[in-house]
Amino acid sequence: MILEAKGIEKSYGDLEVLHGINFTVADNETFAIIGPNGAGKTTLFKVLTGESVANAGRVLVRGKDVTGMPDFRRARMGFGRTFQVARVFSEMDVYTNVTVAIEAYLSGQDRLSSPWWAWAPTAEVRREVEELLSRFGFARSRWRSEAQYLSHGDRKRLEFCITLATQPRILFLDEPTAGMSPPDRKEITRLLRTLKKETDVAIVMTEHDMDIIFELADRLMVLNYGEVIASGTPDEVRSNPRVRDVYLGQEMSHA
Known about the structure:
about 260 residues, Rossmann fold, 2 domains
């Protein structure tokens, strides 16, 4: 297993948000965490990625305990993350956003062949940037557009480029299609299917669009008020009576 969560508990003062969460994720598996608003999904993401510290429990990567490891060190171990509200370098252009991500990754791996003060990225870096931008549908004419002027959907796609530029082994996607148009959602779903087919990256995701969840996920875990109420394959979760009552509803469970 590439990722294990054991007995994760998290509180903010007297408010208990997560109650003894346990799960595992295998290489090349897409593991979805679903549940109503306030269930604790984003808090769990923060604990898993090192942005927040759990009150109890452990996070392991290939058996190594990373519970006390800060987020930047987890990133160097292969953690990648997108956010509900896309995080990009707003005052940089599209091309530079991805260039910075690739050079930061190579520098962290001691693989950057040019000094940090170099005036221009190497040919290898430029090739990687252009491949990523093309894969995510950014026309060459838009490469020098400042990120702050992009649409919401384009900012989300740029965030994907930045995240994949770091060559993650575990990809955490927090509401990856939130606020996107239907065509953009379909395109992101297609890209994730391709990523799964072409690499062994593990994906841990939250998403309110159940059509996307049931299309992509190998297994699901359902949270409600910080507790796991069900886990299993999409069919097992969809047919669970408690999940239908708490989250999916009768219509979705029979879809």
